[in-house]
Amino acid sequence: MFKAELEDISVLKDSIQAISNLISEGLFNVKESGLELIAADPAMVALVDFKLSKKAFKSFEFEKEEQIGLSIERLNSILRRASVQDQVFLSLEENSFTITLKGSAIRTFSLPLLKIDQEDVPATDQLTFKIYADIKTKSLSRGIGDASIVGDALSLSADSEKITLEAEGDSSKTKFILQKGTDEILDIQGEASKSMFSLDYLNKMIKAEKLSDTVRLNLGNNFPLRLEFKVPDKLQLSFILAPRIEGE
Question: What is the pTM of this model?
Answer without folding.
Answer: 0.93
